[in-house]
Hints:
The longest helix is centred in the first third of the chain and has 39 residues, at about 10-45. Helix 6 runs antiparallel to helix 7 (about 130-140). The protein is mostly helical. The N and C termini lie far apart (about 75 Å). The radius of gyration is 25 Å and the shape is elongated. About 35% of the residues are buried. It is built from eleven helices and no strands.
Amino acid sequence: MIVCKKIFFLCNIWVLFLTLGVLQTLEAKSSKQSRMLVQKAKDAYLKKDYLVAKKAYQQACEMGDYLGCSGLGTLFERGHGVLQDLSKAQEYYEYACKHNDAFGCFSKQILEKGENAVELYSKGCDEEKKNSCLALGNLYYKGMGQPKDAKSAVLYYQKACSLKSAEGCFNLGLIYQNGDGKVEQNDDMALAYFALARQYWEIECQNGGRSSCEMLNSLNQFGVLR
């Protein structure tokens, strides 16, 4: 039994060192276990044993190994061992990417710009998610993954704008200001959408949206949308 009556402070320090030592040991053990699980999942995936791969990736992800999370994203993106769900794949990739997992970041970009991007964002847009409608408009406007189609871009930007997406409204304003393909130039429409964009950015800024405030500052600096 350790007596710490007269040396209470030193005793507490000693106990703290012991506690930190135990935590570091557990963390190292956890990291080793999670990497073993990730390797187990990879081996199972190569053997097309997707159920084992899913279980191992899931366990690794829950232990804080973000390679496990991005591995789950791959399974959901490709529909291996699970029903294909691009939204879930995107969530796992994004979660891994936010924690600096390079594979998660790479896979997220491929999914959001590749052959499955339209399907991914169409589902989100149907669910009234403004950012999905905006992204879908961007894909059609830039011709990413499919031929460039300004009219389709306008349709999705309009839906994004109706869901109070400032970027969707602003992009519509640009299209109508300049005209593009089958979309005729219309200054009145452009001004109306620019005004909506500014209104939504002001609301977002008031609610603490830093990027919206920065956008407003830039617009004010250059005298745009006043």
